Every structure is written in structure tokens, then in C-alpha cells.
């Protein structure tokens, strides 16, 4: 071994194999320290997360309405009674909050899970008031709300043939809205959706039907809904907008004169025959008792008095030729259909020979009609309190 070689071996750089081993050892130590750092960081962050979740969960739950029991459910069936109101436009979230606040369900999540399982049924939940129990199973509460038959809110039925002066008080009594509010709403007929042909008068346009107006529903909203239903029935019967006023007026007379569905189209034909033939036996006069009753605003008796038939009102069809200025009541769908599609026939006369049963007889000539009137007079003689 030369001196040069000895110096290089003892005092010089190590052989190539040595640095490679040391580098590997340093890398292993470095990797180990890095992994340990990451693990410690994860543990610290995870611990902070758990702690934050534990602290914040009650706060978040209270804000979202879940209390401390989101995802939990009552076993049911529940007890007692609680009235729950679903408002128009309420979302599933809103309904869930209402139910939890009322103590019906244990958590919002339980109800939302039940409704999400059947979105089609959930979409059928209607506005109204429902009687439920406290402590119900969420699925049971959802099933009850989804059945409209379970609504227990105020249901108002407006029968056919009422005058507006009779309808308004009924609406007020059922909804708690003062009559004055309706009277104020009637001054803005455009907002109610009345057609121009109504000439600002709501008579005849408040459709007779069953309604479920929530307590406090604005008077204008109620009236607008009723007007909309009348217009819908006119369209359904194939009536064009230009004929709305005329057909509705004829329909109201039919409604006021008829006590049975079978005769409506025939009465409508009598009206049209008289209007179409001003030189006919009635010289274009309708001579309908219902229009005189409207003038008097009196009900309960068949026929009219001589004094009433001498009224100078434009609604007195015994003196005025043609139709009255507008409808005389709120006709139903059957009368609107009859007015839009009268029966075919030559009749100029009709009379209810038995107002109790509604039996009505039709005639072409005055002589035939006189015989039928005698039958009516006989009924009146036996029922003096009704004539």
C-alpha cells in the first residue's frame, strides 16, 4: 500500500458505500418524525373538532328547531289534543318546525325523514287546521296531515241562489273578518277580478261552493277567490267573455225559479223564447217572480203580490221588457250550464205547481198555462202560510 493510498483511506473521504447508508438512516429518522407530527396534528385537530361539536351542537340545534333531539322520534301513539295550522305555502321545513314546537313530534328530522320517504304524498298536504296528539310518531303525524279529510278548520258552505247581502254576513261570521272589511273591498272591484261587463257590481259573481278560509284571511282575498270560481264555471260552460254578464243574469233567474235540476234547461229556454219574440204572448217580458223577490229582498213565499209587481224598479220583469240590469243572485254550476245551453222547446210559460216538491209544468199557450196556474192556486189554498 502506497503512502498516497494510506492517506486517502484514513484521512480522506469515505468510500462511496458509506454515505449512502447514512443518508438512508437520516431519511428514515426524518420520515418517522414527519409521520409523528402529522399524527399529533390530526389528533389535536380532531380533538378540537369533537370539542367544538360538543359545545356548538346544542346552540345549532336550538336555532334549527331540533332541540337536543334531532333524529329522535316518539314511540307514539301520543295523547291529548293539539290544533296545528298549516298555512298556505308552508314548506316541509315550516311544517316540521310547527309540529315540533307544538310537541307533536320529538324532532324536526323525524318528520322530515317521514315526509321525504313519500314526496308525492307530502306535496298533497293542504292548508288548514288539523287536530293531532302530543307525542306522536312522526310517520303517524305525516300520514294524518296528508289526508285532507282530517282538516278541522272552518269550512263555509255558500248555497246556490243567495244574494250578496246574504253572503257577506256568512263570510264574516265564519272567518271573523268584520263586515266593514268586505264593504271596503267591494269598492275596488278591479282588484277582485270582476270583468268590466259586471259594471262594478259583485252580485252574481260570488260563486256558491264550500270554502276553507283561514281565520283572518283578508276580505278582498276571499271575494277574489269566489269571483275567480264564477269565471271558471262560465269558461267551463263555453261562455265567451262578451257574454258573461248576459248568461250569468239568465242563470241567476233560472236559479231563483227552479227547485230541481231537471227543469233548469227548460226554464232557460222559456226565458230565451220570450226574449227572442218581443211580439209573442208576453211581448218580451220575462214576468219572473224571482226578480220581484230580489227587489223586495224577501224570501219564504211563493208568488208575488200585485203591489210588488207594480214596482218601478228596473229589476221588475213584469213591467220591464228584456233582462234585468244584472244577476239577481249567485247561480250555481247547473244553472250556468243551463243558461249557456238551453233545452230545445216551444214553451213560453212555466209554473211550479208544487213549490215544496219543485214540480214544474210548462206550457206553450196562455190557455194551457192557465190550467197549470189553477193547480198552483189549489196548492196555495192548502198552504196559505207559504203563499
Tell me about this structure.
It is a single chain. The chain is mainly α and 387 residues long. The protein folds into 4 domains: 3-49; 79-150, 2-Layer Sandwich (Dna Ligase, domain 1), CATH 3.30.1490.480; 158-236, no CATH class; 259-328 and 338-386, no CATH class. Helices cover 49% and strands 8% of the residues. The protein contains 15 helices and 6 strands. It has a two-stranded antiparallel sheet. Strands 3-4 form a two-stranded antiparallel ribbon. The chain has a two-stranded antiparallel ribbon with strand order 5-6. A hairpin with a 4-residue loop joins β5 (349-354) and β6 (359-363). α3 (92-101) packs antiparallel against α4 and α4 crosses α6. The radius of gyration is 41 Å and the shape is elongated. It starts with a helix and ends in a 5-residue tail after the last helix.
Short overview:
With 387 residues, the protein is mainly alpha-helical. It is built from 15 helices and six strands.
Write the SSE topology.
Blueprint: H1 3-11, H2 17-64, E1 79-86, H3 92-101, H4 108-116, H5 119-122, E2 128-134, H6 138-145, E3 156-157, H7 164-175, H8 179-185, E4 210-211, H9 219-236, H10 244-257, H11 264-276, H12 289-296, H13 306-309, H14 333-340, E5 349-354, E6 359-363, H15 366-382
Antiparallel strand pairs: 1-2, 3-4, 5-6
Helix pairs in contact: 3-4, 4-6, 10-11, 10-14, 11-14
Amino acid at each position: 500500500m502506497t503512502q498516497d493510498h494510506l492517506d486517502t483511506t484514513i484521512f480522506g473521504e469515505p468510500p462511496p458505500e458509506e454515505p449512502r447508508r447514512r443518508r438512508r438512516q437520516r431519511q428514515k429518522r426524518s420520515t418517522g418524525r414527519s409521520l409523528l407530527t402529522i399524527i399529533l396534528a390530526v389528533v389535536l385537530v380532531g380533538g378540537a373538532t369533537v370539542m367544538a361539536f360538543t359545545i356548538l351542537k346544542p346552540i345549532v340545534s336550538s336555532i334549527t328547531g331540533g332541540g337536543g333531539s334531532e333524529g329522535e322520534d316518539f314511540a307514539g301513539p301520543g295523547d291529548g289534543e293539539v290544533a296545528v295550522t298549516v298555512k298556505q305555502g308552508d314548506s316541509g321545513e315550516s311544517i316540521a318546525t310547527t309540529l315540533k314546537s307544538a310537541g307533536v313530534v320529538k324532532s324536526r328530522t323525524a318528520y322530515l325523514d317521514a315526509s321525504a320517504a313519500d314526496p308525492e304524498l307530502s306535496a298533497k298536504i293542504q292548508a288548514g287546521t288539523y287536530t293531532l296528539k302530543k307525542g306522536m310518531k312522526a310517520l303517524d303525524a305525516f300520514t294524518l296531515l296528508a289526508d285532507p279529510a282530517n282538516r278541522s278548520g272552518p269550512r263555509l258552505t255558500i248555497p246556490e241562489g243567495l244574494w250578496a247581502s246574504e253572503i257577506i254576513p256568512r263570510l264574516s261570521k265564519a272567518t271573523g273578518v268584520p263586515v266593514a272589511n268586505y264593504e271596503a273591498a267591494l269598492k275596488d272591484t278591479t282588484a277582485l277580478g270582476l270583468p268590466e261587463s259586471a259594471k262594478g257590481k259583485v252580485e252574481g259573481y260570488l260563486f256558491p261552493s264550500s270554502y276553507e278560509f283561514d281565520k283572518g284571511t283578508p276580505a278582498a282575498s276571499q271575494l277574489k277567490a269566489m269571483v275567480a270560481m264564477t269565471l271558471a264555471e262560465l269558461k267551463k260552460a263555453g261562455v265567451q267573455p262578451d257574454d258573461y254578464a248576459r248568461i250569468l243574469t239568465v242563470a241567476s233567474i233560472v236559479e231563483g225559479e227552479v227547485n230541481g235540476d231537471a227543469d233548469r234547461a227548460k226554464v232557460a229556454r222559456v226565458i230565451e223564447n220570450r226574449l227572442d219574440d218581443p211580439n209573442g204572448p208576453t211581448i218580451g217580458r220575462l214576468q219572473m217572480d224571482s226578480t220581484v223577490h230580489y227587489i223586495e229582498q224577501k224570501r219564504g213565499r211563493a208568488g208575488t203580490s200585485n203591489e210588488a209587481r207594480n214596482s218601478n224598479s228596473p229589476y221588475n220583469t213584469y213591467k220591464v221588457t228584456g233582462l234585468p240590469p244584472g244577476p239577481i243572485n249567485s247561480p250555481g254550476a247547473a244553472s250556468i250550464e243551463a243558461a249557456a245551453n238551453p233545452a230545445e222547446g216551444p214553451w213560453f210559460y212555466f209554473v211550479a205547481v208544487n213549490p215544496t216538491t219543485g214540480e214544474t209544468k210548462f206550457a206553450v199557450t196562455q190557455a194551457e198555462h192557465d190550467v197549470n196556474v189553477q193547480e198552483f192556486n189549489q196548492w196555495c189554498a192548502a198552504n196559505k202560510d207559504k203563499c
